[in-house]
Each structure stands twice: as C-alpha cells, then as structure tokens.
C-alpha cells in the first residue's frame, strides 16, 4: 500500500473529523447540553446493537477475506447473521411494551422510537457495506462514505431549527437518523456489483458455521469492550446531572485528533497485517511500527492539549469545562490505537477467549473506578476512570500477545501512557489556575518528541518516497 492509497484512506477520517469539529460547536449553540448528552447515549446504544446483531460476522469477514476462494459466497454468508438478527430485534421491539426513547431520552414518544430504529438500522448497513469497500481497497469510495453523513448532519440539524423545528432531542435524533440513512444510500450504490454477486451466490451452512465459530467469541469480547468504552456515559447518566453528560459528550467529540489517529490506523492496520501473515512476510517491521505509533500518539496528545484552550472561542459559556477535560478524554482512543499493535497477536493466534477475559477485567475496573470517581469529580472523574481502564486493557493485551506471538518492546509505550495519565489528571484539576505553566509544558514535550523521533520520521519519509516510486500504480505490492 503506497502513500497515495494511504492518503486516500485518510481522506475519510480526516474529513469526518473536520466536519465533526465544525458540527459540535454549531450544535452546542442550537441545542441544550442535555440533548447533546442524550444523543451521545443514542450513539452508544446503537453501537451495542451493532455488536449483538453482527455476532462477530464483520470480524470474520476481515479475517477470512484474503484467504477466501469465493468472496461472493463469503459475503453472502457474512451478511445473513446481521440481517436476520436486525429483523428479529426490530420485530421484538415492536411487539413488546419496551420504549427505547424512554430509556435513552426519558420520554415515551412514538416518533422518537422511529428515529432510533432508523438510525440503528442505518448504522448496521453502513458498517457492512463500508467493509466491502475497504477490503476491495476502494479507498476514495470508502472515504466518501465516511464524510457524507457528517456533511448531511452539519447541514440538516441547524437547517431544521432555522426552519421552525423545535430545538429538542427529537429534532436532533431525526437529523442523525436521516444523515446516516443518506450514507446507506451512497454505500448501496457504491457496492451494488458486489451485493448483486453475493445475492446470486449459494448459501453454505458449513461456511456460516465456521464464520460464527470464529466471530461469536469476538462478539462477546466486543460486547465487553462496548461496556469498557461506554460505561462512563451510563455512569454519568446515573450519578451526575444531565448537563454534565452533555459537557462530557462534547469534550469527547472534540477529541477528534485522537479519534482520527485511531480511525486511520485501524482502517489500514488489521487488514494489512492479516495479509502479511497470510503471505508469510517478514514481521520484523511490526516493532518499528509500534515505536513510531507511540511517538505519533504522544505528539498528537501534546499538540491537542496545547490547543485545548482554543475550544472556548467556539462554545457557549455552559461548556467552560471542556478544554480541561480534553487531555483525558483523548487518551482512550490513543491507547486503543497502541493496543491495535501491541495486542494484535491475540487475533493472529485466534485467542478469542483471552481477548474476552482481558476486556471483562478492564470493564470491571472501569465500573469500579467510575463508581468511585464520578460522584466526587463529575466529568473529570469519568474521563480518568475510562482512561485508567483502557490503560489496563492495553497492558494486559500487550503482555499476553508477547507470550503467544511477537515479543514487542513496550517500555516506551508504557511510560508514555503513564505520563499522559498523570499530566492529564493534573490539567483537569489545576489547568484553570495555571494555564501558562501547562502551555509551556505541552510545548516542551512536543519539541522533545520531535527531537527524539527525528531520525525515525526522516527514515519513514524516505522509505515512503522509495515505495511510491517502485510500486505499481494501483498501490498493490
């Protein structure tokens, strides 16, 4: 994969993050913090549905794609479990006296139920259709599908309020649902050839059983990971005021730089490594990638912390705490990005049960820390609890992967995570009192990182230029 292809894949996360940074401040001026907090719970609940309905089929598709003798047959059998599960869940939802709107928004409203169902279904289709583009290496189409729903949301939510719609949870939920549905329409057109071929392919009970055998344990681990990544929001809903959840959700949304690094790297890394393993390539570069990724994550964290006070220029006064939460809320996606390399050996060796137990242990730590810290420190306590839990997740996965796969050097990564936890906590507590001191600290750390990694960066740029010059135009090795 050459630099042009990587850049094409990066367009989606970069564009999505940029539009997100425009959308969040705009929404904060139109909608109360409580409504923004409720939509954060909606997104969290929908991510749970993706895991339950998917049954790990998406991970099985990624794992088996390059080795599959018939990719159309594989796609058909991958799509069957989530489609059947989604249909069953929606029918059960309609038949039972259960209100998702009451659970998420505190109001039993039939229209809101419809928007929730539409948003959930649209996200499920988006996940699997975008995977088709990614695995067929259609980078620009993949990126366009990521940007399109964010652009629709940016335009639709403020336009609806300006046209006279109430600035409430229902309007915001409708904007989210319709924007995601627009992404499904685009993806369906982009993947129409693959979908038609999959429709004509036969059903294979043996293949379906194999996919579920691999995917279900991963789905259980993903379910535990969902709890690990979302418990902070549910604990805030339980133990803090509604507006605190809105402030926290907005701060987490502003952590776009961290999510950007995670999104770009996750898009490229796992499929690429599995291809290396399948082709029996030399895996020595993995250690160097781990070191470079540690430096990149640390640099993104320092620069984002330095820029955090600028968020006050774009937000109402109700969100004054956002800049001081940013360094902590950025840590979970950055730590997870490091885990993508440090713990990838668990997926390579197919140790799904180990992944599940590690995630459950980290989830238990998150729940205990959140229960302890949130009542005392509010949003800052939630940010610290989830960051500590992700740090534990990173250490456990990396140590186990070292035992069963490659013994990657990890001291620098552990030191960087520990330092970020300490400094992020200090900034949340004392950043308002000592802004100049922290600004100087972030600047010094950024310069130190640039000096430490200057040779690695120069070597990476040189290697990229050579690779671009020697690879075929399609970017395939």
UniProtKB/TrEMBL annotation:
GO cellular component: plasma membrane
Compartments, as annotated in UniProt: Cell membrane
Membrane topology: Multi-pass membrane protein
Xref: InterPro entries: Poly_Biosynth_Transport, Polysacc_synth
UniProt keyword terms in alphabetical order: Cell membrane, Membrane, Transmembrane, Transmembrane helix
Principal location class: membrane
A Pfam family it matches: Polysacc_synt
Entry's transmembrane regions: 7-30, 36-57, 78-96, 116-135, 147-165, 171-189, 210-228, 248-277, 289-308, 320-342, 354-370, 376-396, 408-430, 436-453
Stated name of the protein: Oligosaccharide flippase family protein
Origin species: Neisseria leonii
């Amino acid at each position: 994969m050459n630099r042009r292809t990587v850049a094409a894949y990066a367009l989606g996360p970069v564009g999505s993050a940029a539009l997100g940074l425009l959308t969040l401040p705009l929404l904060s001026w139109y909608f109360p913090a409580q409504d923004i907090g409720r939509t954060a719970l909606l997104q969290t609940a929908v991510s749970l549905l993706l895991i339950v309905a998917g049954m790990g089929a998406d991970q099985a598709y990624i794992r088996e794609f390059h080795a599959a003798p018939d990719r159309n047959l594989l796609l058909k059998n991958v799509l069957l479990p989530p489609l059947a599960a989604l249909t069953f869940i929606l029918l059960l939802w309609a038949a039972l006296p259960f209100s998702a709107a009451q659970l998420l928004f505190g109001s039993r409203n039939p229209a809101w139920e419809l928007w929730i169902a539409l948003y959930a279904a649209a996200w499920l289709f988006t996940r699997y259709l975008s995977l088709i583009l990614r695995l067929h290496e259609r980078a620009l189409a993949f990126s366009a599908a990521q940007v399109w729903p964010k652009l629709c949301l940016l335009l639709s939510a403020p336009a609806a309020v300006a046209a006279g719609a109430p600035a409430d949870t229902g309007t915001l939920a409708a904007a989210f649902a319709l924007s995601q549905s627009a992404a499904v329409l685009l993806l369906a057109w982009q993947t129409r050839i693959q979908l038609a071929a999959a429709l004509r392919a036969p059903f294979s009970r043996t293949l379906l059983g194999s996919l579920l055998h691999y995917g279900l344990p991963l789905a259980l681990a993903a379910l535990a990971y969902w709890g690990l990544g979302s418990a902070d929001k549910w604990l805030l809903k339980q133990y803090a005021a509604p507006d605190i959840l809105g402030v926290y959700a907005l701060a987490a949304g502003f952590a776009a730089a961290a999510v950007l690094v995670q999104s770009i790297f996750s898009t490229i890394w796992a499929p690429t490594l599995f291809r290396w393993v399948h082709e029996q390539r030399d895996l020595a570069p993995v250690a160097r990638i781990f070191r470079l990724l540690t430096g990149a994550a640390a640099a993104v964290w320092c620069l984002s912390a330095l820029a955090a006070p600028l968020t006050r220029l774009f937000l109402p006064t109700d969100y004054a705490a956002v800049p001081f939460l940013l360094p902590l809320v950025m840590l979970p996606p950055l730590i997870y990005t490091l885990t993508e390399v440090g713990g990838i050996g668990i997926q390579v060796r197919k140790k799904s049960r180990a992944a599940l137990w590690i995630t459950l242990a980290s989830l238990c730590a998150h729940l205990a820390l959140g229960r302890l810290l949130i009542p005392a420190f509010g949003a800052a306590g939630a940010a610290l609890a989830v960051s500590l839990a992700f740090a534990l997740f990173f250490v456990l996965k990396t140590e186990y992967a070292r035992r069963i796969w490659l013994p990657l050097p990890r001291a620098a990564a552990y030191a960087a995570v520990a330092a970020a936890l300490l400094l992020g906590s200090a900034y949340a507590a004392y950043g308002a009192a000592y802004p100049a001191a922290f600004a100087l600290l972030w600047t010094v750390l950024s310069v130190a990182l640039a000096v430490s990694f200057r040779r690695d960066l120069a070597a990476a740029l040189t290697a990229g230029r050579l690779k671009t010059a020697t690879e075929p135009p399609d970017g395939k090795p």
